[in-house]
Specification:
The protein is elongated and about 70 Å long. 19% of the residues are buried. It is an alpha+beta fold. The protein is built from ten helices and seven strands.
């Protein structure tokens, strides 16, 4: 299904959702009624789209909704936490970008929520008392400041290995202090006492860098169709 032409990259889901619900209020009402009729549950995108198709019997009307804003938003939703009468949606319209909205299935009102509120809805599916307990233990891993950059462009999909290789290479070249943990990690990799990656002869960043330069020069002289292998 193609994205709606009226949805711009700069638009927000929370700002667009009310208009999406108004475009076909009758069918939208039926759709969200189906979402909540089975009680608390976690729904994935395929479940949402399946329920939407079942709620609209007319093929032409169904196509209009699927090709409209609501169809676009639901197809961009990764999962939904259903706690009747509420349906909380986790929407990822673009790689690395998330929005969370809460829809009341009774009156189709929409509220923007944050990730903490969304996780509360997911917790309520399993244990509502625990989810509402102010003394419940919560660990926010997002508070940890990871220095590794994040991929955010759609063009990066499928290129993760190249990205990791470039990132690790830049860390290895830029600073010995930053690269030392990587060298230590490679040294620690072993199986039954046998080194898997490097041995003590390459125990420093400088030694590993020099060895890699020599190895690259040697490999570059080989024909491109040479089959590589690793000797035991």
């Amino acid at each position: 299904m193609a994205s709606s032409p009226s949805f711009k990259r700069s638009d927000t889901i929370s700002g667009t959702m009310p208009e999406a619900l108004r475009q076909s209020r009758y069918h939208t009402k039926k759709c969200f009624a189906r979402f909540v009729e089975q009680g608390k549950r976690l729904m994935k995108r395929q479940h949402l789209m399946g329920e939407l198709e079942k709620s609209i019997e007319d093929k032409n009307e169904r196509s209009k909704v699927l090709d409209g804003l609501l169809g676009y938003i639901l197809s961009s939703t990764q999962d939904a936490a259903v706690v009747p009468p509420y349906v909380a949606l986790a929407v990822r319209p673009n790689p690395g970008y998330w929005e969370f909205v809460n829809v009341n299935a009774d009156d189709l009102s929409v509220d923007e929520i944050n990730v903490i509120d969304y996780l509360k809805f997911k917790e309520m599916i399993l244990d509502e008392n625990w989810a509402k307990d102010e003394n419940a233990l919560e660990i926010d891993f997002g508070a940890v400041d990871f220095t590794t950059p994040h991929l955010t462009l759609s063009s990066s999909i499928g290129n993760g290995m190249n990205y990791i290789s470039k990132f690790m290479s830049s860390r290895l070249i830029s600073s010995s202090d930053k690269a030392k943990p990587l060298v230590d990690y490679l040294l620690d990799l072993n199986h039954r006492g046998e080194n898997l990656m490097i041995n003590e002869s390459l125990s420093t960043v400088e030694k590993l860098q020099a060895a890699l330069i020599v190895a690259e020069a040697s490999i570059s002289e080989l024909p491109k169709d040479t089959i590589s292998g690793i000797s035991a």
